[in-house]
Amino acid sequence: MDLSLSISSFPIDEQTVNDMTELLVGLSAESKTVLHPSLWRGADSRGFAVLAYTEQDELIGFASAADMVGLHHYEWSLYVHPDYRRLSLGTALADGISHGLAQRQAESELVAFVNDVEISGFMESLAYDLDFHEILLSAEPLSKSELPNDLTIAPFAGQAEKLTELLTSAFDDTILPILEHNMVDPEREIWLLQKDQQLLATATLVEEEKVLWITAFAVHPDHQGKGYGKQLLKWCRELAHERALNSVYLDVETDNQALHVYEKSGFVRIQTVSYWKSKTD
After folding, report:
1. Rg for the chain (alpha carbons), in Å?
2. pTM
3. Mind listing the pLDDT tens digit for each residue in 230-251?
4. What does DSSP say about strands 128-139 and 189-195: parallel, antiparallel, or unpaired?
């Protein structure tokens, strides 16, 4: 069978997006997230797709790579129609991704797959090693309730120094480029939990396809274990209800000590995503 590959940069044209969406019919919503469908048509999205077509112009597989925070660090994944998986099409799509990343002078890459025993052999054949796992968690929106009298939650309004100190204390300096991106991206909302003008916790929120994603969530180490994280997570679920969204999502590495906090706050595990890194990096 003769196949052809092409590369299309984001934003992708409407017809191609329709073909990609139709190819994924039947795949769970959670499994689609690693392919970044919310970014395919975004005017400000940075990324590209490698598309595989038959002679009859039928789309039978594609790979999607996204620079989600504009730092030349790409995450990508691929999907091939089950009827065509014996044609080494996955390898051809991965080669197309490598070409596209080289063209864009990518500084690093991670490959993401919903945890699948069949993926290990494929990724090892491409000279990638398993780097880490992340657990995707979900919670339902909640009806509005009152905050304790001494707590306030408000949008970020220029308190960059305090926010930087909180995040670097909770993580390390590697969070700074992500913080800078979150502060300038109009689609990312930074919210701050404070008590008597003291910054205690923060979360960055992104809406995608009726889902509220929680990212860059942190409680200052000096104030952990006091229920502030649970209070902010509860408020995020209430905000999702207020906006008539369907779910609240967040992901966390499997060895993150905050995992139990999320689960005690009503979040349940949906799936595990494996992340792979090139052996040459």
Report:
1. 20
2. 0.86
3. 999 999 999 999 999 999 999 9
4. unpaired
